[in-house]
Amino acid sequence: MQKQKLLINGERLKDELERFANFGRTENNGVTRLALSKEDQLVRDYFRSCCEELGLTVTVDDMGCMYATLAGATDQPPIVIGSHLDTVKKGGRFDGVLGVVAGLEVVRTLVENGIKPSIPIAIVNFTNEEGARFEPSMMASGVLSGKFEKTAMINKKDTNGMTFKHALQASGYAGDQENRLTEASAFLELHIEQGPILEKQSITIGVVECVVGMICYEIEVIGESDHAGTTPMSMRKDALFTANDLLTDIRKQLASLDTELVYTVGRMNVYPNIHTVIPNTVVFTIESRHKDPEVIAAVEQVIKNLPQVSAEGCKIKATKLWGRDTVWFDSDICQSLDESAKSLGYSNKRMVSGAGHDAQFIASYIPTAMVFVPSVNGKSHCEEELTHWEECEKGVNVILDTILTMLAK
């Protein structure tokens, strides 16, 4: 007969998530808790108190990241669970915080069952994952992983002109560099999917294999402005019409590359933007994401093959703004997560993340993996964001079961 699995307290998880949502709760049951704001400071204080009540040791690093550690029987590198507590403006109750509260619930379950782990278990709250107050996103994990340079990051300013450094000092959560996460046996991040796939397929657990690679180009079309009423169509160099033709062609070509490829024109500016004047300049972005570098390379080739001059005589220039390679997560941990989900009887699948997460930076130096749980209607970064409580519970159970398996090895 199979031994009964150790499970978390689902009602306690629900209550805790609601308590965390009180720090910055909006009128429409969302959350506004920008990094290092008063609301963020208060939720940090509450998180610290929860951890200290459990007997955890809480430390803070020089980027404001919080670490709460349950001592192990040996002093090996810890298993780390976590995510972030900051939100976007009028965001949801689950993005980021679920991963932190998951760590809290896992440790509570271990403590109440008298389980002393063979190695330490740590919960982490990464600072400024969203980048909603201080750009860029994933700022602290970027510094920890060496992707971003610290001096440049701490001098970033919000819309009021306050620097990250000043806000960090004012929050009371400016710690020491020696407290940074530098090594760990594993890092696990539970997160809502922020997309519609799991819900649409009626699947509870997504084991995330990678964060997909992406590129972003800016396309500039230069024509000539003339009077909208007196210039014959055959004599125009209309930048907007040319841009429209380009987009139609780009979309057709990208659609033929791969069904999993996603691409977006997220920004378009038209000049002079006057209804009586033929547009002389159009600038737009084309961003594309896919896990396969060969598909991304094919996207770039489509863009590079754009004509330099259109049939109407408009000049066309493509400039690469930025790109990132696909980040693959640890295959052994992904396999363990798969096995835990199956052993618990939860429907599950392997999937990719189109959005960025702290885990993608941490994966560069620590064995890392992520778990997704469904987002109702795929909604996130909005007050309508919702993941059903029972699916939050199942996600945390997968994390707990995986950690227990790791500890038993």
Relative helix content: 25-40%
Count helical runs.
12
Using the alpha-carbon principal axes, give the shape: elongated
Which sequence of SSEs, written as H and E, runs from N to C? HHEEEHEHHHEHEEHEEEHEEHEHEH
At the fold tier of CATH, the topology name of the largest domain is: Aminopeptidase
> In percent terms, what proportion of residues is strand?
15-25%
Rg calculated over all Cα atoms: 24 Å
Helix-and-strand structural type: alpha/beta
The CATH architecture classification of the largest domain is 3-Layer(aba) Sandwich
Number of domains: 2
Q: The biggest beta sheet, please?
A: 9 strands, mixed
- Mean model confidence by pLDDT: 97
Instruction: Specify the CATH homologous superfamily of the largest domain.
Output: Zn peptidases
- The CATH first-level class of the largest domain comes to Alpha Beta
Number of strand segments: 14
Distance between the ends: 22 Å
Write a structural description:
The protein is of the alpha/beta class and 409 residues long. It folds into 2 domains: 10-211 and 326-408, Aminopeptidase, CATH 3.40.630.10; 213-324, 2-Layer Sandwich (Alpha-Beta Plaits), CATH 3.30.70.360. It is 33% helix and 21% strand. It contains 12 helices and 14 strands. The protein has helices at residues 10-21, 38-53, 97-112, 139-144, 150-154, 164-171, 197-200, 239-255, 293-304, 331-343, 358-362, 389-408, and strands spanning 57-60, 66-70, 79-84, 121-126, 186-192, 205-211, 213-222, 262-264, 268-271, 281-290, 315-324, 327-328, 348-353, 368-373. The strands form 2 sheets. Strands 1, 2, 3, 4, 5, 6, 12, 13 and 14 form a 9-stranded mixed beta sheet that branches. Strands 7, 8, 9, 10 and 11 form a 5-stranded antiparallel beta sheet that branches. Helix 3 (97-112) links the parallel strand 3 and strand 4. Helix 1 (10-21) crosses helix 3 (97-112). The two termini are 22 Å apart. 44% of the residues are buried.
